[in-house]
UniProtKB/TrEMBL annotation:
Name of a matching Pfam family: Methyltransf_11
Protein name in UniProt: Class I SAM-dependent methyltransferase
Keyword Magnesium (UniProt): no
Entry keyword set: Methyltransferase, Transferase
Keyword Methyltransferase: yes
GO biological process, one term: methylation
Superkingdom to which the source organism belongs: Bacteria
Occurrences of domain Methyltransferase type (ranges): 45-132
Length: 245
């Protein structure tokens, strides 16, 4: 518990969890698919880039490449990682408007956005441009969320993929692909849970070891007795195109 409380959670690198937790990956391979699209366009924007780690996996970036991030430590990490490759990282709140001109980008990407402003995405896409993203789906990792917070019936209905598709269409985009997968997660020790909840801060708002020490000790006992704590993430792949030339 002390080790997981002290380790840095800056950026979006989860390598500290190696050997402590596992998560299945979606079959579509988002980072690989995103990289292939980035290599084929002239301009792109990665929204809510985190520490820039996913974007940095792409071997080829377009001549014009920008990224946004709202959390200052992540923005600094992304700038250090992506700046040498010519990416302009803009620190901006996760709310409209995006700090770019109309029809500025051929491609907009995003992995696990906290919020999606469909009108803004449609605005900054050029005609014929594409939004390609992997979203967190409904009730993702809710076995863990509800262990700490109790039943969350209203929250379980959020992030519905069909509703997201409808919102994209309402903004004037054509939904080309929309699919969701449910994926197994295993936490092998209580430190992995602490690290995860410190990093993914919206799962259990206000989480701290001090606030939840009792539940964490109970969870430690459960894992030692019964084996890994099992949860399930949900992921949605969405590709939407702006009509035009």
């Amino acid at each position: 518990m002390a080790e997981a409380s002290a380790v840095s959670v800056d950026g979006w690198d989860f390598s500290w969890l190696d050997g402590r937790a596992t998560e299945e990956r979606p079959s579509w391979g988002y980072a690989r698919s995103m990289a292939s699209r980035l290599a084929a366009v002239r301009s792109a924007l990665d929204v809510q880039t985190g520490g820039g780690e996913v974007l940095a996996e792409a071997r080829t970036l377009p001549p014009t490449m920008a990224a946004t991030e709202s959390w200052p430590p992540n923005a600094a990490t992304a700038t250090r990682l992506l700046g040498p490759r010519g990416v302009v990282v803009v620190a901006t709140p996760d709310e409209p408007p995006l700090p770019f001109a109309d029809e500025a980008f051929e491609l907009v990407t995003c992995r696990h956005p906290a919020t999606v402003w469909w009108d803004e995405i449609a605005r900054v896409l050029e005609p014929g441009g594409t939004y390609f993203a992997q979203h967190v789906g409904p009730a993702s990792v809710f076995e863990l969320v509800e262990y700490f917070l109790g039943p969350q019936p209203e929250a379980r209905r959020a992030r519905d993929p069909e509703a997201e598709g409808a919102a994209a269409r309402a903004a004037g985009l054509e939904v080309v692909d929309l699919r969701t997968e449910r994926l197994r997660i295993e936490f092998f020790d209580v430190g992995a849970v602490i690290y995860f909840l410190r990093k993914v801060i919206w799962m259990v708002p206000g989480f701290s070891v001090e606030a939840y020490r009792g539940r964490l000790r109970e969870l430690d006992g459960l894992i030692r007795r019964d084996g890994p704590f099992v949860a399930h993430s949900t992921r949605t792949l969405i590709e939407a195109r702006k009509p035009g030339a």
